[in-house]
Amino acid sequence: MDEYLILMRLDLLTREAQPSPEEMQGYMKMYNDWVGGIAAQDKFVGGKGLSTEGKVLKPGDVVTDGPFVEIKESLAGFIIVKAGSLEEATKMAAGCPILLGEGNSVEVRKIAAVHEK
Predict the structure, then answer these.
(1) Which residue numbers in the chain have pLDDT < 70?
(2) Burial class (CB in 10 A: 0-12, 13-18, 19+), 82
(3) DSSP string, 43-70
(4) Predicted confidence (pLDDT) per residue in 22-56, tens digit
(5) Strand pairing category for 105-110 and 55-58
């Protein structure tokens, strides 16, 4: 079984796109239920949310503030799951409640071992 990275992108900048505290509580319950369902299948490896602070490095010693390159979508977090195929991981990702938000997206990528300890 391989590991897949599920990247969750949404608009973290536009004030109008931010949920109310009540909406956020509902979204977090849906998110926790979704992750809990994956964990119940023993296919959850781990994951983290990301802060809105960060730096972007570009060639030529260019360093800019913020992880937001030139788009409104920001990488909000990720989880790693175990799956037998990209299709299975994509099916898991399809249940991510972030997809309920307009303009949001989820990306699934197979983790390729480049660095081994």
Answers:
(1) 66-73, 116
(2) middle
(3) -EEEEEE--S--EEEETTTEEEESS--S
(4) 988 998 999 999 999 999 999 999 999 888 788 87
(5) unpaired
